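Could you help me review a protein record that somebody else here produced? My question to you is simply how this chain folds and whether the C-alpha cells agree. Thanks in advance; the entry in question is below:
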Amino acid sequence: MSQREWIEKDFYKDLGVSSSASQEEIKKAYRKLARDLHPDANPGDSKAEERFKTVSEAHAVLSDPAKRKEYDETRALFSGGGGYAGRGAGGFSPGGAGGFSQNFGNAQNFGDIFGGGATAGDGGLGDLLGGLFNARGGGTRAEGSRPRRGADVETETTLGFREATQGVTVPLRMTSPSPCTTCHGSGAKPGTSPRVCHVCNGNGVITRNQGAFGFSEPCDECRGTGSIIDDPCATCHGSGVQNRTRTITVRIPPGVSDGQRIRLAGQGEAGLRGAPSGDLFVSVHVSQDKVFGRNGDDLTLVLPVSYSELVLGTTVSVPTLTGRVGVKVPAGTVDGRILRVRGRGVPKRAGGAGDLLVTVKVAVAPKLDDEAVEALRRYAEAEKASGFDPRAGWAGA
C-alpha cells in the first residue's frame, strides 16, 4: 500500500477506535467486527463483504507496531496546511503551517517516511519526491515499476487444547481476492499477452526535467504498470484478480499457544496482474481442557489423593497426551507437592517435549462409616502419643 492510500484512509475510524488505542483494544475491535462482517455470516451481502475487507486492511496495518508507527508518522506529516490528501502530484505544497517544512524534522531521515511503504510506479510520494530531490546529473536513475503486491489477510481459528499441543491440520474457508482462474492473473484475454508500454518502455514511470531538478511520475498511458492490455480478460476485466471463496488447508504445528499468529506466505490477497500475493495470518485461539493446564512447554494437572495415600505412599496412574503413566507418590508426601514427569509435556519446535507437573491434592471423604471413624480416632490418639503436632511453631505457638 502506498503512502497516498495511507493518507487518504483512516484506519482507526474503520475499526472504531481512537488513535491512542492499545494493541489489545485494536485486537478486540477487529475480532468483533470480523465476526459480524465475515462473508460466511452475511452471504450475498456485498456491502458487508467490502466492509470486511476494509476492516481486515486496517487491522493488518495497526496490529503491526512497525507499520502502525510508519502510518502515524506519515499521516501526521501531512495533517496540516501542507497536507497531501486529496491532491494530485502537482498540488503538493511543501510550505504552510503544520505542513512539510514544519513536520519534516520529526522524521529521522527522508527515506524512512517515503521509502518504506510505496513501490515505484504506485504514484505515491516516494516516486514524486524521489525524483524531485535528485538533481540532474547527481541523482540516481528512477527504477522501473514493480508489481503491486497483494494485501495481507487475517483470519482466526479455534482449536481444542489437545489439538493445539499435538498439532493438527485444519481447513479454513475464506473469501478474498485471488488470482483470476481464467487468465491466471495476467489480466489479458486467454491466448493474448500484455504488451510493453511504448511511452515508458515498461518502467511504469516517466521522467521530465525542470531546471536543475528531475521529476518522476506514473506513466499516464499504462497507469504505472509498465504494460498495456489490449484484450482484457472478460472475467476479471483486466485486473488479474477475482473475488472467490476457497478452502485452504493449514497445518498447525505442535505446541501452538493461545493468541499465537501463524504466517502462510503467499496465501493472502492476490496482487494485480500477476504480482505476488500477500500473506495470510491465522490467529489461533485455544480452548481450555478439563484435565490439563499449561505453563510454557510444561503440562500441569491436579491429582486427587487420599490422606492415607500421602502418608503411606502409592503409585497412581495419570493421563498424558499420549497415554497413561504411573506416578509414584512417596510416603510422607505433603499436600500440594508437585511431582515432575519428564518428557511428557508439550512438544517443542526444536525437538523433545516439556514436562508433566502433577500437583497432589488431598481429597477428604465427606462421610465415613462407624468402623472407619473408630479407626481414625485410634490413629489420632497414636499420632498424638508419638509427639506429632501439625501446628508446632505455627503462628508463634
